[in-house]
Design a protein that fits this description.
By secondary structure, the protein is α/β, with parallel strands linked by helices. The protein folds into two domains: 147 residues, Lyase, Ornithine Decarboxylase, Chain A, domain 1 (Beta Barrel); 248 residues, TIM Barrel. The strands form two sheets. Strands 1, 11, 12, 13, 14, 15, 16, 17 and 18 form a nine-stranded mixed β-sheet that branches. An eight-stranded parallel beta barrel has the order 2-3-4-5-6-8-9-10, surrounded by five helices. Helix 2 packs parallel to helix 9. The N terminus is likely disordered.
């Protein structure tokens, strides 16, 4: 576990780790905007997922793109988590978090030569290929550098997951995977076997993110197992099936993901089929374990509506602007009263800078703290410095202690990253 950056880590009660009082105290100490994670809940979620698929020969790889904090990756590694990565940078984060290279799966459509060589050098467990050109490039790099690596073929089963179009990856209209319909996937799998430095490890599929209905998973998995058995019938070894991730969460915060129901569905399809299985959950492990605490700067009554102007912005949490995503927002100060709907907006010079629109909100005043809920996934990991705004700090609460896992940079820090040739 990461050491606290404070001289004496703050002790907080186990029974109320992320209650309003705790969040207010943390905001006072570390200032806002501030990401606060519940590490105990993260581990509980991960272990629940592990248990749900424990009747199958399986490995669980956390999807690093959901939250790439080295501290959180390291915490998950203590429970046996592997890593699903999509860049060389994520590979180095996973290694820094002491995740064993053979428990790392490298996905993504645009891996560069440097990223592939880094993965081969460290001996990652599997590289998922998504095109014939990528397959040929990996084979050439492996041969010229005397590397051996295991390769899985990511297939596109043309299934509509029913999620937002920007996080839907299971259809032939997207850039992901290799279609089953024209014989390409079978020919590519055969080509993997023809390269002396490559070993075919199996097939991979991932149809999208934030799926709350199991039906698209079941359709995709049936397509996957059918194709795998077809390849076996042709004499190819297909030892491993990577089932991807995408399991969604309830952003209202009312229900928890039903991992047990998901596990039973997977078991029904794959039990006694002779495949080793891999899973890559991300959002469902960390999503509901994060809060973004922000302070009200002003309350403005416009001609048509009320605006609650806060110090968090689209650079801190871009999901509402990018995906029209919903996040529950609660006032941490109980003032009573109700003033109807309001837009919750940040200080960035964009009309699109909002965390909620037409949201029913209680009465709040300047200086009050709000908590934006369920930001543990695709929150801090997507932050930027737009408008020269330093990123929010991040703290992790775990086993009754608070750890600062990312301090806020200063504006001077940001400017020092640049070079001015005219001075």
């Amino acid at each position: 576990m990461a050491l606290s950056h404070t001289n004496t880590p703050e002790i907080i009660p186990d029974h109320g780790m992320l209650d309003s009082g705790t969040l207010i105290n943390l905001a006072d100490q570390y200032k806002t905007p501030l990401y606060v994670y519940d590490g105990d809940q993260i581990l509980e979620n991960f272990k629940a997922f592990q248990k749900a698929v424990s009747n199958l020969e399986s490995k669980v790889h956390f999807a690093v793109k959901a939250n790439s904090s080295v501290a959180i990756l390291s915490l998950l590694s203590t429970a046996g988590a592997g890593a699903d990565i999509v860049s060389g940078g994520e590979l180095q984060r996973a290694l820094n978090a002491n995740i064993n290279p053979d428990k790392i799966i490298f996905s993504g459509v645009g891996k560069t030569d440097n990223e592939l060589l880094l993965a081969m050098h460290h001996g990652v467990g599997q590289i998922n290929i998504e095109s014939g050109a990528e397959l040929d490039r990996i084979a050439a790099l492996a041969a010229s550098n005397n590397f051996e690596c295991s390769i899985a073929l990511r297939i596109n089963v043309d299934v509509d997951p029913g999620s937002h179009e920007k996080i839907s990856t299971g259809q032939n209209s997207t850039k992901f995977g290799i279609a089953l319909t024209n014989g390409q996937a079978e020919s590519y799998y055969e080509r993997i076997s023809s390269y002396p430095n490559l070993t075919p490890s199996g097939l991979a599929v991932h149809i999208g993110s934030q799926l709350t209905n199991l039906a698209p998973f079941e359709t995709a998995y049936n397509e996957l197992v059918g194709f795998a058995e077809h390849l076996r019938g042709k004499g190819f070894a297909v030892p491993y099936l990577d089932l991807g991730g995408g399991f969604g969460i309830d952003y209202e915060g009312i229900t928890h993901p039903d991992f047990t129901k998901y596990g039973k569905m997977v078991e029904r399809i794959f039990k006694n089929k002779g495949f080793k299985l891999g899973f890559e959950p991300g959002r469902s492990i960390v999503g509901n374990c994060g809060n973004l605490v922000t302070k009200v700067i002003y309350v403005k009554q416009g001609i048509d509506k009320r605006f609650v102007i806060i110090d968090a912005a689209m650079n801190d949490l871009i999901r509402p602007t990018l995906y029209d995503a919903f996040h529950r927002i609660d006032s941490l100060t109980e003032r009573g009263g109700d003033t109807g709907n309001a837009d919750i907006v940040g200080p960035i010079c964009e009309t699109g800078d909002y965390l909620a629109r037409n949201r029913h909100m209680p009465f709040v005043e300047a200086g009050d703290y709000l908590a934006v809920r369920s930001v543990g996934a695709y929150g801090a990991v997507m932050m930027s410095n737009y408008n020269t705004r330093p990123e929010a700090s991040e703290v992790l609460c775990y086993e009754g202690m608070v750890h600062l896992i990312r301090p806020r940079r200063t504006i001077e820090d940001l400017i020092k990253m640049e070079i001015n040739p005219f001075l």
